[in-house]
């Protein structure tokens, strides 16, 4: 009898245009059966995280400092799963682990690739599928946010931005202002994430609102969008403002948002510090975020902003399209069919 292997999401071809949806180059296929070797474990995946960077890695080349996905091979990304077969003494069957070999029903993991999820720290294991590492690195290490800062965050309803804004609050910023698309997301930032104010870039005039909310200027800008929002932030920068540049989503979804105009005279006159950065997810960066996340969550100073969806791997594929289209808010996680967890929806 032929044994059927697990399903996985494979890259059929590289994307060639930003307007091309990721789903058009992805396919769910059945892989050949594979047995774990000595020291390895087989993990049945329960939750799949969906992140914007995956869309960039579907091109033949990318400026993101990690290898692009290869045509004909499964893509990968952060996931939570349960060990169902083990040949590793320190990871017995039943252990729930975090790893980066997701986008498949089952993953065969080497020693050091699976990280046990601590019990009792968070309501569910999927709470570890967040983008807190780049948010913490940018807010703390790059921008140095502290007491008295007036912080502006673009893409504040997204996975990275929602964490960055909350981290700024937890660090004692005097005011945290978030930019999001649509009145519902703007209300969410204030009512549920505790920001001081929010700007709807679709319905509000950015300059008018920033003049109102930050009359003395912003001292920190955490940017995940680029484009017109970067240009507006520069116009409202206080002397010595620090700009932590994390992403250019406006350029990832089409248009020239990744190439905003830099008003050099304003930047020079106000001595604005432009600090672009990438996050390598080093052990030190992961540990720095993890230790603060657990404490801040326990203290009620941070929430796991998320959209939790239910379905198969195909649902994760369509969620990738939806994420780039701005449909969801917070960290987007798909609870794969057959796993246990919470109900679908926003938090």
TrEMBL record:
Q: Where are the transmembrane segments?
A: none
Q: Where is the Enoyl reductase (ER) domain?
A: 19-334
For this chain, one GO molecular function annotation is: oxidoreductase activity, acting on the CH-CH group of donors, NAD or NADP as acceptor
Xref: SMART domains: PKS_ER
**Keywords, sorted A to Z:** Oxidoreductase
The superkingdom of the source organism is Bacteria
Can you say what this protein is called?
Enoyl reductase (ER) domain-containing protein
What is the native source organism of this protein?
Pseudonocardia hierapolitana
């Amino acid at each position: 009898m032929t044994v059927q292997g697990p399903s996985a999401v494979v890259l059929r071809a590289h994307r060639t245009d930003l307007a091309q949806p990721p789903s058009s180059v992805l396919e769910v296929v059945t892989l050949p059966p594979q047995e774990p070797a000595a020291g390895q474990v087989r993990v049945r995946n329960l939750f799949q995280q969906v992140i914007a960077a995956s869309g960039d890695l579907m091109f033949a080349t990318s400026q993101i400092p990690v290898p692009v996905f290869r045509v004909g091979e499964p893509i990968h990304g952060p996931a939570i799963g349960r060990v169902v077969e083990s040949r590793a003494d320190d990871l017995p069957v039943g252990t729930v682990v975090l790893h980066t070999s997701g986008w498949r029903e089952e993953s065969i993991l080497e020693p050091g690739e699976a990280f046990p999820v601590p019990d009792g720290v968070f309501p569910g294991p999927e709470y570890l599928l967040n983008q807190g590492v780049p948010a913490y690195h940018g807010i703390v290490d790059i921008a140095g946010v502290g007491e008295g800062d007036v912080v502006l965050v673009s893409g504040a309803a997204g996975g990275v931005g929602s964490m960055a804004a909350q981290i700024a609050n937890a660090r004692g910023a005097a005011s945290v202002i978030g930019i999001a698309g649509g009145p519902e997301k703007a209300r969410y930032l204030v009512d549920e994430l505790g920001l001081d104010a929010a700007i709807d870039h679709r319905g509000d005039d950015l300059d008018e609102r920033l003049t109102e909310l930050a009359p003395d200027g912003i001292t920190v800008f955490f940017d995940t969008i680029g484009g017109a929002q970067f240009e507006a932030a520069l116009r409202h920068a206080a002397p010595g403002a620090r700009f932590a540049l994390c992403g250019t989503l406006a350029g990832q979804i089409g248009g020239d948002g990744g190439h905003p105009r830099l008003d050099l005279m304003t930047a020079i006159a106000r001595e604005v510090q432009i600090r672009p950065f990438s996050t390598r997810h080093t052990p030190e960066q992961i540990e720095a975020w993890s230790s603060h996340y657990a404490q801040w969550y326990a203290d009620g100073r941070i929430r796991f902003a998320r959209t939790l969806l239910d379905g198969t791997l195909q649902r994760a594929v369509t969620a990738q399209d939806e994420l780039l289209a701005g449909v969801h808010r917070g960290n987007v996680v798909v609870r794969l069919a057959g796993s246990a967890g919470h109900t679908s929806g926003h938090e």
